[in-house]
Write a structure and sequence with these properties.
The complex is a heterodimer of chains A (92) and B (542).
Chain A (H helix, E strand, L loop, with lengths): L8 H22 L5 H22 L7 H27 L1
Helix pairs in contact in A: 1-2
Chain B lengths: L20 H4 L4 H29 L10 H20 L2 H15 L7 H20 L18 H4 L4 H28 L12 H33 L12 H35 L6 H14 L15 H13 L1 H15 L8 H24 L1 H7 L3 H31 L1 E2 L2 H27 L14 H31 L1 E2 L47
Antiparallel strand pairs in B: 1-2
Classes of the chains: A mainly alpha (92), B mainly alpha (542).
Bound molecules: protoporphyrin IX containing FE (HEM) and copper (II) ion.
The site of copper (II) ion has 4 residues of chain B, from helix 9.
Chain lengths: 92, 542
């Protein structure tokens, strides 16, 4: 495995700020009563936040391709699961 | 076949601890495999006894030996034990642990301590689940599926049982992580992915399902606990929840879990067939890839368990259509196995006999699966005995028989002794006849409309119930003969050569039983797993 090439503290703080901003966006949108769209946007924002955490804080940025592929497998699976579940509900 | 002085076997090796501590604190993957085997077969025995009790209750209409309440607890515990304690961890935990490192030429798994921790967590989960029998409100009576709203309302010990299943999930996840890391990192020189034995391929696919699907179950079970203790209302329509959401979450795990159960069984079959047909496997790559395909497609079909529970019509036909896709990779396996047998030099020894039994019984299970997978017919047979017959054919007739075949195939390697083959043949006759007497009538009953999970029935089902109950006695007689035959091999101690069957994978190149670190020298691999060795060594028959 590679050495941990960690980022500067400044970039960590920036990422953290981005997470805070995105959280407030989620909260704001939740109050806007967008109907079916509100779930989609909430999931989309959560996805961005999750990626930021995994990429920077969990250091995926500096990992082998193999780990990225493995994470992708998990992501694809999760997407499939969510899409199918919501699919059922939206046609009921 | 082993060179000069045999190294000390893992059974004789004296580590830091003596006696039983030398087992329950051992980080040797082989000892852990055997720990799992002993614990699992004990639980299996309990499950079988519960099954026998149910069968006795069903011998006659009306109350025979237990009350309806007790019957409900019997099938719940029987299902929980068989699913969570036996058939899901089954092959990977026992034979995966023991043979994965041996088959890829490694000294142990990647994380030996984590491996031991998995066993302890497994035992803890089992203890918690079984405690629910004896304390508080009594044994759970929801069925192993814990469907809401009943699982939230039942006054029995559902919370404890669900906590047990929750804990067991972690054992499964940790084993999965361990195996994936081992396969990626610890293969012997020359052991490329396309030279891995097919059992390893199935363990790899299974491990991915264990990692990706089990957390969904864990979350779902936590939600049930939260619903029971805090009254959240996630699944309660009166509070804005949705009971069908529970079924989605449950089957998002539990359908992929049926592939956790069957894939390693298919792996065992892919090992045994080339050995006893004395041929290289036909379609190695197709079989290997089909395992990954099954694992993936397995995520797309869970809705077929919910055809009658009120999901949308569009979801129903799409899930039904997707279910049929699984037939493709399964068919790839079956046809390649048959093609391997074609013009092989077949040697009908006990492991192969049970492998053929697997193919036969699993095919019945698979074909009845088409009936339950097709939307139109499933509406008719859903929640009837047809389903009970179907899943015993796949799980017991499939994975269960593969487990017995694996025991017979690898027993000489694990303990360095041979068993009495004649008695195994006799046990097989009982098992095969009893099995079909027990479960085939269930298919007929279900087709005629007999609902499952009932302790009573109308008189017209009496005859078929008698056949099934007598069948359960025949089957258990067979299982007992099987067990006693294996036990007696410890007494007679007929020594096993390192390669009694003429197998070509790496585990057969080391001594029986193997030394602590598996090989005196880490092997270098220069050929496919089932190709004959270029220079025949002793015991090799090609
Ligand atoms: C001698 C062996 C066995 C006997 C006599 C037996 C018998 C039965 C019976 C009578 C039922 C209940 C039917 C009903 O009222 O709905 C049942 C349910 C079940 N069995 Fe078995 N069985 C045996 C072995 C197995 C094995 C090996 C497995 C799994 C690998 C298994 C898994 C299950 C499951 C999951 C259920 C459903 C429980 C539920 O409805 O919640 N059984 N079995
Ligand atoms: Cu399914």
């Amino acid at each position: 495995m590679k050495e941990q090439q960690s980022l500067s503290y400044g970039s960590y703080v920036l990422v953290w700020l981005a997470l805070v901003v995105l959280t407030s966006v989620t909260v704001t949108i939740a109050g806007m009563h967008l109907g079916a769209l509100s779930i989609a946007t909430a999931i989309f924002i959560a996805l961005i936040k999750g990626s930021l955490v995994v990429y920077y804080f969990m250091n995926l940025k500096n990992e082998d391709v193999m780990f990225r592929v493995m994470l992708l497998v998990a992501l694809v699976t999760l997407t499939v699961i969510m899409v199918f579940t919501f699919f059922d509900i939206s046609f009921r | 076949m082993s060179n000069t002085a045999d190294p000390v076997s893992y059974l004789d090796y004296q580590g830091r601890h003596k006696g039983i501590l030398g087992w329950i604190l051992s980080t040797d993957h082989k000892r852990i495999g055997i720990l799992y085997m002993i614990s699992m077969l004990s639980f299996f025995g309990v499950g079988v006894i519960l099954g026998l009790l149910m069968r006795i209750e069903l011998l006659m209409p009306g109350m025979t030996i237990v009350t309806p309440r007790v019957y409900n607890s019997l099938f719940t515990l029987h299902g929980m034990i068989m699913i969570f304690l036996f058939i899901i961890p089954g092959l990977p935990a026992v034979f995966g642990n023991f043979f994965l490192p041996l088959q890829i030429g490694a000294e142990d798994v990647a994380f030996p301590r984590l491996n031991l921790a998995s066993w302890w967590i497994y035992m803890l989960g089992a203890a918690v689940a079984l405690t629910s029998l004896f304390v508080g409100g009594g044994a759970p009576d929801t069925g192993w599926t814990f469907y809401v709203p009943y699982s939230v309302r039942s006054g029995t010990n559902v919370t404890l049982a669900v906590t047990g299943a929750f804990i067991l999930g972690f054992s499964s996840i940790l084993t999965g992580i361990n195996f994936i890391t081992t396969i990626h990192r610890l293969r012997a020189p020359g052991m490329s992915f396309t030279r891995m034995p097919l059992f390893v391929w199935t363990l790899y696919s299974t491990a991915w399902i264990q990692i990706l699907a089990t957390p969904v179950l864990a979350i779902t079970l936590l939600l049930v606990i939260a619903e029971r203790t805090l009254g959240l209302g996630l699944f309660d329509p009166a509070k804005g929840g949705d009971p069908i959401l529970y079924q989605h979450l449950f089957w998002i795990y539990s359908h992929p879990a049926v592939y956790i159960m069957i894939l390693p069984g298919m792996g065992v079959v892919s090992e045994i067939i080339p050995t006893f047909a004395r041929k290289d496997i036909f379609g190695y790559k197709a079989i290997a890839i089909s395992s990954l395909l099954i694992a993936f497609v397995g995520y797309l079909v869970w809705g077929h368990h919910m055809f009658t529970s009120g999901i949308s019509d569009t979801a129903r036909w799409i899930f039904s259509l997707l279910t049929f896709l699984v037939a493709i990779p399964s068919g790839i396996k079956i046809f390649n196995w048959v093609a391997t047998l074609y013009k092989g030099s077949i040697d009908l020894r006990p492991p192969f006999l049970f492998t053929l039994t697997f193919i036969f019984l699993f095919s019945i299970g698979g074909l009845t699966g088409l009936v339950t997978g097709a939307l139109a017919t499933d509406v008719h047979v859903h929640d009837t005995y047809f389903v009970v017959g179907h899943f015993h054919y796949v799980m017991f007739g499939g994975t269960g028989m593969a487990f017995l075949a694996a025991l017979l195939y690898w027993w000489p390697k694990m303990f360095g002794i041979m068993y009495n083959e004649k008695w195994i043949w006799r046990s097989w006759a009982f098992i095969f006849v009893g099995f079909n007497m027990l479960y085939f009538p269930m298919l007929i009953q279900g087709w005629m409309g007999h609902p499952r999970r009932y302790y009573d029935y109308v008189p017209r089902f009496h005859a078929t119930h008698i056949v099934a109950t007598v069948g359960s006695w025949v089957l258990v007689t067979g299982l007992l003969i099987f067990a006693i035959t294996l036990f007696r091999s410890f007494k007679s101690r007929v020594p096993a050569p390192s390669n009694p069957w003429g197998g070509r994978t790496l585990e057969w190149t080391t001594t029986s039983p193997p030394p602590l670190l598996n090989f005196t020298q880490i092997p270098t691999v220069t050929r496919g797993p089932y190709e004959p060795a270029p220079t025949p060594t002793g015991g090799e028959t090609s």
